[in-house]
Structures
1.
Amino acid sequence: MFQVLPDPIKDLLRVLEYWDYILTGFITTMELYGGAIVMGFFLGLLLAILRQYGGFFLSRIATGYIEIVRGTPLLVQVFLIYFLPLSLNAILDAQGLPLIPIGEWSFQTTITIIDRSITFTILDRRILIGLLTLGLNSAAYQAEYLRGAIKSVSTGQLLAAQSLGMSRLAGIRHVVLPQALRRVIPMWSNEATYLPKYTVVVVFIGVVELFGTAHFIVGKIFLTLTTYIIIALIFLALIAIISKALDFIYKRTKIPGL
Amino acid sequence: MVGPVLRVVDVSKSYSDLHVLKGVSFEVWEQEVKVIFGPSGAGKSTLLRCINLLDPPEKGEVYLCGQNLMAPETNLNAMRARIGIVFQHFNLFAHLKAIDNVSIGLRRVKGLSKEEAHVKALEALDRVRMAKWANHYPAQLSGGQQQRVGIARALAMDPDVILFDEPTSALDPELIGEVLQVMLDIAKTGTTMVVVTHEMGFARAVASEMLFLDEGVIVERGTPQHFFVSPTSERVKNFLKQINILYGSHEELLKRSNEGGSK
């Protein structure tokens, strides 16, 4: 250990000198995570409902989407969404048709913290593509967790709702989902704790999130081990907080007596 | 009102090769209590699900107050709101307190305000003697209490008829009495009811007509008097003998209902 890290405190301080970079990287990671989990939740809920209640065609379309997304590597999906517009444009160009706009653009804001002025990239083309891919990917996994929870609500619940005169959709909304969403939390916490780590794949399309930041710092000061350990610890802390928070929500929303 | 509340005409239903109902017809008039009984697999529960079209029949017609439920222009959700159902396994909404179980239909289907629905729901809970349990969740209640909330949920909607699908057969024996008592009470206040049950004491006390269903057809029909004194078919005689052995007699329940019941 001491041979690998001859002077751990000094190394640590040298890496932490780059705290402004680590901060911007962290913000980008959180943005990707937050955006993808929310987008994945709503799309996943839609997919789960369609797969469970959608009838012959819609349930098959939902199943197809879920199986394709879960069956292919996330990295391939990122590249596909990143490069597809470029390839399409080559075809469109050859036909003399108008192109898909893919120029570089970005929204940035600069804030001075302590002695440094830090530029945060809120959104650019790469982050947007990363967000979309992660959200579309997470939706497939979340859909399966949600479907499991929906299926676990007994069919008598929806029957009772319909026999009161509620439409099927109203029954799903007011009776099935409130129960399914409570039950799904322990399973869903899998996705909530996996996803932060999956966000690192966007490094391959040039997004500088936490992992990309680590890469950058290592390139500057060559303290490989220290840098990556710090990044790992940040992930560990983040996931510990998410996991605790979900546990808390699960206990708070539990149906009394069950 | 002119005409029956509920008219079931030649209803048939099959699941793949299994013919569950083979042309069942009967009428229920206002304030009548119709008791349907028969061996398991006779099609009793299927018949009830056919009546409110949760499981639409393949053949035949169902009329509620003269309106054909099978007609394509019928708004089924609106019609179902006028047919109450009490389930064998209660099917209370697990995430809602007793009071909200009763008021959800009033709010979401009948469009009552939160306050109006609350008042009506509390009245309904009071009728089944569950008002003081209003803020309990289903999992915190006994089976008998849950079933009484189930009855209140149906009552609160002011339906034209309430269907009971073996309301006491999932209950522990000592909890059956409280549910039957509530059912007797509401029968006596003139609620139109169709009850699938093997509780012969209940049938004897309030049934205006009893239907014996076996293998998807009504084998015999008549007053409780007819069934307990002089049933005609061998099938019915056998069945009633079995029931008697299993359940014993309900002398106690009968006595209570004769004393006025509403206590």
2.
Amino acid sequence: MREYLRSKTWVEKVESIERMNAVDKIAKEAMRKALAREAAGGGVSRFRDAH
Amino acid sequence: MQSVLRALNRLVSDGVILSYAIGGAIGAAFYIEAAQTEDVDAFTVLPSSDSGLVSLSAVYEALAAMGGVVEREYVRFGNWPLQILTDANPLIAEAIAEAVAVDYEGTPTRVFRAEHLCAVALQTGRSKDYLRVSMFLEQGAVDPQALLSLAERFGLADRMGKVQRGES
């Protein structure tokens, strides 16, 4: 862990946070679209089908 | 990130703020493993006003004139919402005054010292703040004795004890 931390600069760590945020944004948008489809009756919910 | 830092530096050079330092998760990433955050926390010292009241409106106006987009309490530059905070208490005032000058890809800026990042996190006192202090300690990124001394000076020794005992 220490080696890993030493090997990453502040800039690299901030860029990795930016990438995490970008992935998070894509995941949230995909979830929003899936829920919208579900609400419109056009999707299939695994949760609903499981019960 | 560079556009955020350039904007902050320009606030100083234009006299809109007297000084600033980066704290929060972005400041912490200077010392420890990166943790996800959606904004940049800049702690600022504002010029004193005649009324004695603190107003951030001049800061927001200046940032907007530099191309920042005001969104609720943030000003967005590119991917990064910037939150402007003030030297609201003696601990934060000391943290800004003693911040270290660093460089972000050629752009000069200032970051809280590790001890101050931890003490401000203890003062803020949310679960994620205690976790950050634990990470500093576990990763050997802060001198525990120096942090304890700071915590005692600002009435945070109990909270520091909780983190050290794993009770937070």
3.
Amino acid sequence: MAEFINFYFIPGLILGSIYALGAIGITMTFVILRFANFAHGESMTLGVYFAWTLVQLTGLHPLVVMPIAMVLTVLYALSIDRIFYKPLRNAPVVMLVVASFGLMLMTRSVVQFFWGVQLKSVLPGIQRPIMVLDYLRISPKHLLIIVSALVLMFAVHYLLTYTKIGKAMRAMSDSPELARLTGIDTEKVVLATWVVGAALACAAGVFLAIDTHVETRMGFKLLLPMFAAAILGGVGRPYGALVGGLIIGLAEEISSYPFFGTEPLLNPGYKAGVAFAIMIGILIWRPSGLFKGKVF
Amino acid sequence: MDAFYGYMLYGISLATMGGIYAVLTLGLNVQWGFTGLFNAGIAGFFGIGAYTSAILTTAPTHRHLGGYEMPYVVGFLAAMLLCGIIAYLVGKVCLRLRSDYLAIATIGIAEIFRLILKNETWATNGPRGVSEIPKPFEHWPEPWNQFAFLALVLIIVAIVYVLVEVARKSPWGRVMTAIRENEPSAKAAGKNVEVFRMEGFVIGCMIMALAGALMAHYLKFVDPNATDPLLATFLVWVMLIVGGSANNKGAILGAFLMWVVWSATEIVTSRLPDELAIRAAYIRIFLIGLMLQIFLQRFPQGILPEKRPTVPKSNQNNEAL
């Protein structure tokens, strides 16, 4: 049991909260700007490289420089929106998907050009896990990630429930036409969507970098699980994205636990396929997701 | 004379690769140009086609599944059949939803296929790939074997072109355009939108599989890099958007043009010092991406814009009656 919690459940929780934070941006862009943003993973990669550079420059802990990296990522997302997405806003929406697909490769090539493709690390050294209640082992970095992820999730909750712009975002995601009729400033909501999405993407990327390492394909690897999390939770449902992310993360890690005998239930090499399988399942049986999201 | 011979061989290889890309782009044109479906996993179908034909036609070996030594035609047809079935299953799940879901699912298919290539080494030889794939005409004397293979590719391009062109001008093609342009009114006219979309998607994927099989036999080698989203998905998209979506001539033009641009810039960057050459490769990707964005924003029609087929006179009269 201790083995299950230490090596499968806790890593699943970590991965799940990373997916969850990333999926919020995906689900909100999907519902408010009406397109699946393939470049979202790349905002994440870029944010991580901003954070890595800041760590190199200042020598501080990655979580300390993370707010600055988040601001830089937001600036990136806003300029991308202005240059590449805004001119296409009146074109058929699928054009935006094509544009975001192109931006995915463009952004990655910029990262590869400036930072190279070698593995990097934001937090050097090996950390000794802390023992809790004799048998629970949790490493300090995992504790940090979970706590920071919880803080961010509460911040999102506060924003969506108590602030004017957050309420406007939820109104837009429920019914764009109705929101516009009641006088909500669409452009402002679009702006807020990019700010929230990019900031959370950067944070999720930094958490992943603290947990593993920094590489140029990390955002792309997260793209499919994040889409799966957004669809599982219901498109346009930020809380759904949180739950969906946690479920996908846990399912990926737990899928390789040896439930029967000593062999892993699923070859760990196919871990990345779990998200896809869950997504296909939900598309077949309940395309609106767990939280009754939008279906286009 | 030697220099000329070298240039000629280079020209043949450019044209052959351009031709294979033309087949891929025609496949995408059926999906995107005709039907408006976004396939973000071209690399997956391309790779499945390449591996299927490779495994069916190679000589016995202990490195991977194979040893069936089937004729090329069987390899090509099996590749198309398998991709058609996979496309049907994906389509069954995603085509009733908007195009975005299909995009996500197709990129997923490409990723899953990459996982299979990586994990099932008994069948695919893992990252080392399948080698010694037979190539049509390879026993002919140099350079005639190259010419012959080029001719084969061009004949296949021509056949695919004629078939999709006939399809585009047929009533089937006109329904496709109707669905792409205005789905509710196509539905109102009694067209079963899902069935038509499925046909477009499956046919497109089968054409992509054919291109994959051709590539495997041309290079005599296929490894997991075949599913690289950059070369097999992104470049094809740029080719179609630049050449002109929904125009089959545009698709072919875009494929040859962009392949020449892509290869020519590689010649330039490979002459730079090593460190710079690696970095310059990323600039190439960036610039190609920028080109896609410029075409999307300024010239969404591409170089050769779509030409709607005219309805034959006799038909018009019938409809008037």
4.
Amino acid sequence: MLIEFPLKEEHKIMIDLIKEIGETYIKPYSLEWDEKEAYDATPIKALAQADLFGLIIPKEYGGLGFGTFEMCLAVEWLSYFCAGVSTTYAASFLGAYPIILFGSKEQKERYLPSIAKGEKLCAFALTEPQAGSDAFAIKTTAKKDGDFYILNGIKQWITNGGIADIYIVIALTDPAKGARGASAFIVEKGDPGFVVGKKEKKLGLRASLTTDLIFNDCQIPKERLIAKEGMGFMVALKTLDYARCGAGAQALGIAQAALEVSLKHAKTRVQFGQPVYQFQAVSHTFAEMAMRLSSARALVYSVCHYIDSVAKDFSGASAMAKCFATDQAMWITERAIQMMGGYGYMRDYPVQKFFRDAKCLQIYEGTNEIQRNVIARELAKWIKV
Amino acid sequence: MGRILVCIKGVPKPGTVKVDKETHTLCRKSAELILNPPDRPALEVAQRLKDQANFEVIAISMGPPNMVPVLQKVYALGVDDIYLISDRAFAGSDTLATSRILAKALSLLSPFDLVVMGARSIDGETGQVPPETASLLNLPSITYVKEIRYVDGKFIAIREDDFGEEEMEFYPPAVVSIVPEIDYVRPPSLKRLLSIKEVTPKILTNAELNLDEASIGLSGSPTQVADVFEKTFVSRGEIFEGEPDELAEKLIEVLKEKGFLA
């Protein structure tokens, strides 16, 4: 657009590859997947064969060893084609992060190579029916039993439920200790006592799968504990700190697509004898969209670089990137519909899908209200009085 | 481990091609080359056999030096090695001369189990090279294959023709050509794309092939092209304007004038 963000040659190669995948395996089908609320494994297979599941996996485990910035670029451009597909993709990273950040050498060796190849998808399971924003209210328990842990409880709204092979599950090992009594576990598809519940019907992101996970005396070996008992929330929060930028990146891709489609329309749609773009009410709206998108992109990219520069504490920064970019995407997609009038509202055109997809970004991976809490909390630490 | 050789071709990117007025051939040297689109399914079929039965897959192409970037992109699709057959003596070869050159080059890479080619090229559109090469190699040829499996030392191919599908079983080696469109072709690998510049094709010239110059290139090509020309618009269409009724009458008048209506 009006700003060209400096990108290295390797980034350009990656973006071109994602655009090729988007044009070939996603764009012709995305409205159909949305309409039918259908998950299609083809684009995921293509992403796997293109090595794109290996982006953030360290090189010694078969990945590319890239950082948050590259992950976000990939998620951004996939979202440009379909945020449902990019949700499947990004949620797999959400499930991979705990192993990358906190996994033991054995856990890394066992799981990361097949994650990098895209042979195994991941999922991250924290939310429960009574524990959304109030994550500490989880009730799922994990009881030590000899060489095993026994899990009981229900996880809700889990992205990639059913298609993932590796699930990171946060459960209470010591309910009496509250937040300090939670631990993170790796549960594999097929573990005894673990079943996938019903598939949710959603407003947007309909090409991705969201399900319940049910643990009924689910028995897993004790080696599946990540880090130590009691570190569950630390694992979860650190993972979300990293992954939140991904939601911001999704917002950029959706907003970019919405802006392009609606701008093309406004420049060709003739009313009152001229393209509607010639009306100032319309063109100024686009000017506003461009400013909002560019500033969101600048923020997301700079937070990515901040994280990749081995910043230690970046909760506030990643919350800003997520909250600001997703709010902008919501505004931009809503205006994009308005700029297309009736065409924007029709399901034959993609802008209404962008709008529905964008809505979820303000909710998942921590609502934007919670993000503001995080930003405010970090801000308060910054000025000491 | 068996070996599969995939013959691919660089074709001028549509819109960039120029015609050499003297030889009536396409100027491949100046054109921007892309992978002949029907070769992508051929590479995919070979790759699937590699996935299934661990074959080594080698891509091989005859063409000018500007074919190198195309071969590098093919490397990114996952093949094990790339070869370029390139020599001024090969320039201007028709399908027969090309098949002679390919057959010789392929024999230098033997033993192999399978030669895979796209059904045709989008520039020449003849579809002759796969069966011609098979014939020169004295190997069986199966055209229009859409799927191949490797089972117990044999290949089982599903061949598509105008009347339906047929299943064929054959022992290696053989030459097959693949239908231009299959259900899925894999994208390139990012890891390979990032290291593309470090990979250069092995070059085979006529020094290695040692073919009689009378049998290759323009002089070795029985096809003598009478003319190839760039399309130009000689006359503009005529545009009539007016009300539908008038236009209909005008149209009937014109059609009668031209003798299309009595």
